[in-house]
Amino acid sequence: MSGPTRVPGLLYGGDYNPEQWSEEVWAEDVRLMKDAGVNLVTVGVFSWARLQPGPDTWDFGWLDRLLDLLAAHGVAADLATATASPPAWLVRAHPEILPVTADGVRLEFGSRQHYCPSSPVYRESATRLARKIAERYRDHPAVVLWHIHNEYGDHVTECFCAASAADFRHWLRDRYGDLAALNRAWATDFWSQRYGRWDEIEPPRAAPGPVNPTQVLDWRRFCSDALLACYLAEKAVLDEDGGGIPVTTNFMSMFKSLDYWAWAAHEDVVSDDAYPDPADPEAHVAAAMNYDLMRSLKAGRPWLLMEQAPSAVSWRPVNVPKTPELSRLWSFQAVARGADGVLHFQWRASRAGAEKYHSALLPHRGTGSPQWDRTVRLGRDLTRLAEIAGTRLTADVAIVLDWDSWWALELEDHPSSRLLLRELTLSWYGTAYVRNVTVDFVPPGADLTSYRVVLLPNLYLTTDATAAWLTSYVADGGRLVCGFFSGIVNEHDHVHLGGYPAPLRDVLGVVVDEFWPVPDDASVDVVFGDRRVPATLWSEWLETGTAETVAGYGSGPLTGRPAVTRNAHGAGRAWYVSCHLGDALGHVLDEVFADAGVRPVLDVPAGVEATRRDGPGASFLFLLNHRDAGTELPVPDGIDLLTGTALRGTLRLPPLGAAVLKTTHPQPER
Ligand code: GAL
Questions:
Q1: SS3 sequence, 163-200?
Q2: Which atom of ligand 1 approaches the CA of 309 most closely?
Q3: Which pTM was predicted?
Q4: What is the pLDDT of residues 401-425, one digit of tens each?
Q5: 152 CB under 6 A from ligand 1?
Q6: Which of 59, 219, 269, 524 could cross-link to 248 by cystine, CB 3.0-4.6 Å?
Q7: Per-residue pLDDT at 670
């Protein structure tokens, strides 16, 4: 099967910033890339000032020579449109392109990502540069992927300048049509906020007290769309002049500011930058979640890990390196969850500049170094996994993720400001992860027919259409597990009346009378049969209608009331979890998974991650040992592609060890 570009096998390499080095160094670079098995480098990400030294002067000579050199050595290029860092001359000629913060500070030149997404000058300058690059290099043999911009929303996600305000008003006019509709949606009779003219509306700048929540929610939607418009302007250029080469822009994992469902629809290949912290012993769980999201953004298509650190980063307060084993294990983890490439920031460690202490594939010390050995080893390993490119995972379980609801949940003045969607989702995801149950993410309205179970860690903002979608999923035989404070408001952040969670009450068979958030450092007991577990963050005065009680509160003011319920609805069942159970959510999910016939990929010891990618004639079982101790596990017969060894029934994994087992037998039905 083939991967996302025309380069065969898995992709390996990283960001390459040759403009930081003399051309003699380039010759060494390509030679060492070959030694390391590097087959793709991302070029030109921060090259704008070099490529366009003045408004009408261009310098492509160096990039011509570089791409020729790469092509001559069989290294492909992911060529950037170079638009993430506008040059000084452009900023000085048009200071209005610099972004402005909520309290009115215009951010200065001297770092990167210094542009206002709504600036017409920025957008025109960026698309002009993108067109020059596309026209010049679309037929270049090295170029296999276009890389638009870099990490949209990194550093600057919103700008409060006059151009942004004007753009926001346009966006609002498109959304609401007339002011009466906006006044209704924003509930402007509250606190005398009624608008009589469009030009009275401003972005939610720093204000004396809480800003209108619907205004803030619309602002979040607008900011994601404003950056998306920048992307789409460049994408249109590449669609026209890019020679049919696939297009990507690198995402930043589960990133709140950008609605990646909307973005991924316009990408040919999803790519992600992921920087799990080696100092965090649980970092691999959040990494797995991010990777599963990336795979899900284009319905299971292979994606690319566009950036990871070979070892330490340089931007945390304390930057702990990865051991060679950890670096290798975490690289396999991305492939295990659907990546067809493992790329890094960056190829050669910078000598100067803000990132000179960031690790690289080629470290400051050069080749005779353990860091370089690690680089060569990973290249060899990924070559051994070449046949995995293009294969896919399947999941029986889906988690619903919706950016609108994320933004709304985290608005101010809620019963608790401690409810953060990423953390809630990670807690639910982690419960499935430790059971080695593969999970996809889906947006509201997605086709759920292939999923036995749908998890809803939180969907604070639930439209009537989304509620109907979930209800019919259950009526048709699905299993839904719904977390607290879901189904509370509509698309305008107005409360659904009649008892929470009004639009989901039928399917859940419960009504919530009042929210009882749990103070920091406190907990309440929840009783499952003879087991008592602590719940933190949140609890609710819950009443059952048609639902039955699965667990009840065992301490505090809600003692004796239901905490977790189950409701039969049509051909399916829906569970409601009114409190934050943490790991104890496993009590609920074990019941749900058993009820739905959801099985782990493989029964393995705790701490071992198991996933499976399937191709036409073979399956590839990834077994990753995240523990510091060795372990032995039962496996089907097959060949470990990393060692070439045939395995018969048992596998020994060293601490932080990994195996990729190729099996040609049909896998048991899960
Ligand atoms: C990314 C960025 C890269 C580099 C890297 C360092 O966010 O895209 O250019 O700065 O971080 O970790």
A1: HHHHHHHHHHHHHHCCHHHHHHHCCCCHHHCCCCCHHH
A2: 12
A3: 0.98
A4: 999 999 999 999 999 999 999 999 9
A5: no
A6: 269
A7: 45
Q: What is the CATH number of domain 11-161+216-388?
A: 3.20.20.80
Instruction: Verify whether ligand 1 is closer than 6 Å to residue 358 (CB atom).
Output: yes
User: Catalytic residue at 410?
Assistant: no
The average pLDDT across 547-552 equals: 98
**What average pLDDT score do residues 246-257 get?**
98
Four-way CATH pick for 608-663: 3.30.420.40, 1.10.490.160, 3.80.10.10, 2.60.40.1180: 2.60.40.1180
Q: Is 548 a catalytic residue?
A: no
- Domain(s) labelled CATH 3.20.20.80 in the chain stretch across 11-161+216-388
Dist. CA 39 → ligand 1 center (Å): 20
Give residue 667's pLDDT band: very low, low, confident or very high (50, 70, 90).
low
- Among 151, 234, 491, 609, which one carries the catalytic annotation? 151
Ligand 1 pocket check for 277: Cβ under 6 Å: no
Which atom of ligand 1 is the closest one to the Cα of 154?
7
Superfamily of domain 397-596: Class I glutamine amidotransferase (GATase) domain (3.40.50.880)
Q: Please state whether 597 falls in left (phi above 0), alpha (psi between -120 and 50) or beta.
A: left
Q: Using CB atoms within 10 Å of the CB of residue 411, give its burial: 0 to 12 exposed, 13 to 18 middle, 19+ buried.
A: buried
* pLDDT tens digits for range 607-639: 999 999 999 999 999 999 999 999 999 999 999
DSSP strands (E only) in 81-119: none
Cβ–ligand 1 contact at 345 (below 6 Å): yes
- Pocket flag, ligand 1, residue 307 (CB < 6 Å): yes
The verdict on the CB of residue 151 being under 6 Å from ligand 1 is yes
Distance 14 CA to ligand 1 centre (A): 11
Q: Give me the pLDDT at residue 664, please.
A: 87
Answer yes or no: is the C-beta of 154 below 6 A from any ligand 1 atom. yes
Burial (Cβ within 10 Å: 0-12, 13-18, ≥19) of residue 49: middle
Query: By CB neighbour count within 10 A (0-12 exposed, 13-18 middle, 19+ buried), where does 236 fall?
Result: middle
- Chain-centroid distance of CA 398 in Å reads 15
Most ligand 1 atoms within 8 A of CB, residue of 47, 113, 257, 273 to mutate: 273
In this structure, the chain runs to a length of 670
Q: What is the pLDDT of residues 198-245, one digit of tens each?
A: 999 999 999 999 999 999 999 999 999 999 999 999 999 999 999 999
CA of 104 to the centre of ligand 1 (A): 27
